[in-house]
């Protein structure tokens, strides 16, 4: 398959992604408890749309009412999980295919053969997250939806949201808003691409600020190689004057270090 065909297929993959995302967002389910005394409606993005409490129950025991609300929310979330499972699988499959279509262009941009990354991604590892950033009207300094960080994987794909909040950091430590472009996907380079390319593709520092008015919902897709893949500086990315900055490491070893350094203070160390 030629490069033009690969890019054409990538465009078709995006159409499938957009369709799956739209279908997920349109889903609504109703959770019920107390024989219909409390009803909760939830959308596909996990946003609670409405809560109904019948008049008699609203005047009753506060603890019972709280239990009914929790039960109705849990019922709605369980129904939503069943309803969205197929659509989410369609969504993740489409992004995984799109990501693999970008491997050849990336390799060529690095003066490497188009097949350079194929073996590492014969069975890609990915994770997928539904994120909710509640609105905060009077956010204080250094209050984040998610604090500044880089992603540990190879590439991250994020379907654009009209709600502001996502920012990236420049080489001069300036934080810039990521502009909203309708029907598009933001692609971040992660730690694995950074190590493979000796920093030619930087792992993008980014953060999410809490929105001031409306909640922001995000569906990041974290794309990585097989866990046994060896991440070693590419030959085109090093020279006598620019030696490899990072020692070879498998993706699995790196992820073990990453989890320990972020979630296990007793094992934190530089790599």
Could you walk me through the main structural features you see in this protein, from its secondary elements to its overall organization?
Helix content is 35%, strand content 23%. It is built from 6 helices and 15 strands. It has 2 domains: 28-83, Nucleoid-associated protein YbaB-like domain (Ybab, Chain: A, 2-Layer Sandwich), CATH 3.30.1310.10; 102-267, B-lactam Antibiotic, Isopenicillin N Synthase, Chain (Jelly Rolls), CATH 2.60.120. The protein starts with a helix and ends in an 8-residue tail after the last helix. It is α+β, with helices and mostly antiparallel strands and 271 residues long. The protein has helices at residues 3-26, 55-58, 62-101, 103-109, 191-196, 251-263, and strands spanning 28-33, 38-43, 48-53, 125-128, 131-133, 146-149, 155-159, 166-169, 175-177, 185-189, 206-208, 216-218, 220-224, 230-231, 249-250. The longest helix has 40 residues, at 62-101. The strands form 5 sheets. Strands 4-13-7-10 form a 4-stranded antiparallel beta sheet. A 4-stranded antiparallel beta sheet has the order 6-11-8-9, with no helix packed on it. It has a 3-stranded antiparallel beta sheet with strand order 1-2-3. The radius of gyration is 22 Å and the shape is elongated.
